[in-house]
Amino acid sequence: MSDGHNTTTSSGNGPIALAHLKLMLLILLHHLTSSPGPSAAAFYPDCFDLSTDVQADEFRRHFRWNAASAILRIVAEDDFVYAPSAAVVSGVARDVLAALLEADPQERIAGNRNVWIIKPACMSRGRGIGCYNNIDDLLRHANIQTKMSSTANAAAGGLAASRRTELLALEDGPRRGSVADKWVVQRYIERPLIVHRRKFDLRQWVVVSSWNPLKVWFYDKCYVRFAAEDYDGETGDIGNIFAHLTNNCIARHSLDFAAKDVTGEGNIWLETCPAGARLKQRREGVDSVWSDFVQPAMKDAVKRTVQCAQEHMLSAARFNSHQLYGYDFMLDEDLGVWLIEVNTSPQLCHSTSVTARLCPEMARDLVKLMVDAPAHEMRERKAVKGDDNGEKIADSSMFDECDTGWWRCIYADPIRIAWPRPGGARPGVPLYVDGKPLRRKHRFSAAKSSPPPPFDTSTTIADNKTATS
């Protein structure tokens, strides 16, 4: 699902990369869901860690619940009404589904097949991913992949080309006995927005220029990645990764990749291309669905995920450093925006003509952000320091007149959190050293060292001169 290093890759800067692992993102957003305020369930599909018993049991419960709601959706369809009694049952099912939709926003992406997607926690570029609507097959996928991955690299050297394609998801696989053995399972978006019969996702670049105080930047240009083959949510093959995964590293292995290229540029579009026009058609009377609905929802999801991670990053974040992230979003058929995953160190290679134009432009603008924005902020703060009201700049408006290219500051916290520098202890932790000092015992020999004679205070300087002469 991602072009570059995934949230679980070992690349990055230690704890900085760790803060956005698939598992860490899962934990942080689960915490957001259970805390007061808006829930992450409105923009992040249900996700569970299969390596823990509690999470695995929770997944099984959700799987059964979604299977039951899938039956309700089938009963609620008009085709189910074959008799007067069936019409009554279908009406009750529709009422129940309406109540479920009001209580659980995840019902907007649910379908009739109860599909879940399983991902290795330490892989990127779509490797090891599988889609299933049978819980036994899903768990078997995790067990088989983990066992086979330790030998996949060695075996791939002697395999035929066709067999290498079959093991595409296993190459460079995880090793047992590490975080690589962990798997996450996520609710599949069964009702995505379809353009030219294809699924697509949005790759959005984000920069965190400071974790304390928190500053978050959003690139105003993103690109759309299409799957290589047509999507059919009702009868299509669940196991066909070329219809379900939008990652270019996966799509280019399809036999029909070039013949069925819907964009003419490697199945990648800029957001201003016809995909954006299709979005506008979904909302009548709105000038720009993109700027009025989609982009604000993406920015809100970015701010909330970064704010969730701030506390965990403070002990690891380095001063005067930046971190580039690649956010992957999808849209459902009602234009709901869903965060799929966050990638550290996203790949910026020129895989298509679109990325060949966009990546260098983003990199040039990134230099402006790193060099010009801090100097501009310092001037702005000095300008308001002597104001009578004494108020500090409390939002991102301080960067409105700063040339940062297409980078836009969407969050700037003026208050620095009281937190020790990296390597120090957290506030409230007592700092003391328990032990006793080491003392060296000096032994003097009487022959080698003897104390000096006492000074005779009765002898004057004149007496000493007379004695000398």
Essential attributes:
D-amino Acid Aminotransferase, Chain A, domain 1, 12 helices, 37% helix, globular
Give a brief description.
With 469 residues, this protein is α+β, with helices and mostly antiparallel strands. It has helices at 15-18, 22-34, 53-76, 84-103, 135-156, 161-166, 241-244, 248-251, 274-281, 289-314, 353-385, 461-468, and strands at residues 47-49, 116-120, 130-132, 183-187, 200-211, 214-219, 223-226, 268-270, 323-331, 337-344, 407-412.
Report on the architecture of this protein.
The strands form 2 sheets. Strands 5, 6, 7, 8, 9, 10 and 11 form a 7-stranded antiparallel sheet that branches. A 4-stranded antiparallel sheet has the order 1-4-2-3, sandwiched between helices. The chain has a domain at 192-429: D-amino Acid Aminotransferase, Chain A, domain 1 (2-Layer Sandwich). By secondary structure, the protein is an alpha+beta fold. The chain has helices at 15-18, 22-34, 53-76, 84-103, 135-156, 161-166, 241-244, 248-251, 274-281, 289-314, 353-385, 461-468, and strands spanning 47-49, 116-120, 130-132, 183-187, 200-211, 214-219, 223-226, 268-270, 323-331, 337-344, 407-412.
CATH superfamily of the domain at 192-429: ATP-grasp fold, B domain
User: Which structural class is indicated by helix and strand composition?
Assistant: alpha+beta
CATH architecture of the domain at 192-429: 2-Layer Sandwich
Strand content: 5-15%
Mean pLDDT: 76
Major sheet, described briefly?
A: 7 strands, antiparallel
Measure the end-to-end span: 102 Å
Q: What is the CATH third-level topology name of the domain at 192-429?
A: D-amino Acid Aminotransferase, Chain A, domain 1
Describe the global form: globular
Cα-based radius of gyration, to the nearest Å: 31 Å
Number of strands: 11
Query: What is the CATH class of the domain at 192-429?
Result: Alpha Beta
* Total of DSSP H or I helical runs spanning 4+ residues: 12
Proportion of helical residues: 25-40%
